[in-house]
């Protein structure tokens, strides 16, 4: 059955469908970056609120600024912006249709339609999931990358911006000039202090073209920090077929695990939905939740994904079935990451590791090592390097984290140990591959990428271990290096 408003009542009874009247929903949020994660996570929380009869004036308008986003928009428009969510768990699978998104802004050059939509008084939150590497952060200084070509363009052409952030600045200018008032900018990407990062990007860009507007934004807009968590694989032929098994013809279904968490700082300048009524947590300890999740889950993903890719293991659950890789995960987590993580309400760091172990081991989730290893140039500096620095400062072990960094360097050579070629998997893939090949003969070349590692090349306890592990991997292979580490 082709998914649409008209066919909802005709779908198989095994598929849960919205019980609310979608025609009575009105928009309150523009969300930029309508990937799988958003639809399985933030959009689901709103969907649940609508199921409770709450907040019908907070429906989502999708948006994007890249050509891919227009392709996505057309697919979703053809099915009235509905999404089939398929929960995958070892105990079974289930499907429901989410209806919290009601429109999608056409993607046009200059982003004029997006700017006008965000300037609509009904829009009170602009949210984003544009990946960790999408915020124009200088990797060396962690400050704003003002010299990036996209930013240079938007500063010179503020009315026809290229980036989502340029569009946000332009929309806020219209709102100020029209007396509409501000909106909240809500980052939903895996960045420590993600609200602060979004604030930095928006304000820094605004200052380049209109310092007075930047001051208005700084005074009136809010950018709450948040922590988001749900494992959501990419959609491919298997997922499309799985939706059809449930009797639904959905061009863009989403699979996800049986776990969600959303912790949000309650700092919204123009109101917000009652997300806590659907299971989200409002807290003034978002930072602690962020650190736990980013270090243990996101960092844990990096611990095993590059190793898995080099060994030719296709999925994260497959990595956890591999005795050495699972042992690597547990040893690095408990000895080198957990000591630097504070407990949060509901979890000690050790308990959280056990939870992540179970989630990564979910064989029903076909989460690929390739997806998790993507954009290592953003993820390793963000998820792994902070634990290395904490370990060096505290005098705790960093041998395993050095091995993880060496595995990333080996992965970026671009050929797995079974001889298969790794297709480019990072925005900086060409440069990384050049460095990785040079590091085969001189491992320290890799650590000299100071935009990622800073001064870690000058820290003997880490750098010497990295050199030893990468040399061993190249000479004897990944499993030999794992055995050597696990024997320590």
From TrEMBL:
Protein name (database record):
Mannitol dehydrogenase family protein
The UniProt record lists the Mannitol dehydrogenase N-terminal domain at 28-276
* Keywords recorded for this protein, A-Z: Oxidoreductase
The family database entries (SUPFAM superfamilies) matched by this protein are listed as:
6-phosphogluconate dehydrogenase C-terminal domain-like, NAD(P)-binding Rossmann-fold domains
Would the keyword Aminoacyl-tRNA synthetase turn up in this protein's UniProt record? no
Q: Molecular function (GO) terms listed?
A: oxidoreductase activity, acting on the CH-OH group of donors, NAD or NADP as acceptor
* Gene3D superfamilies associated with the record: N-(1-d-carboxylethyl)-l-norvaline Dehydrogenase, domain 2, NAD(P)-binding Rossmann-like Domain
Question: What is the source species?
Answer: Ectorhizobium quercum
Under the heading Pfam families, the entry gives: Mannitol_dh, Mannitol_dh_C
InterPro entries documented for this protein: 6-PGluconate_DH-like_C_sf, 6PGD_dom2, Mannitol_DH, Mannitol_DH/Oxidoreductase, Mannitol_DH_C, Mannitol_DH_N, NAD(P)-bd_dom_sf
Query: Mannitol dehydrogenase C-terminal domain location, by residue?
Result: 286-468
Looking at the keywords, is Transmembrane helix present?
Answer: no
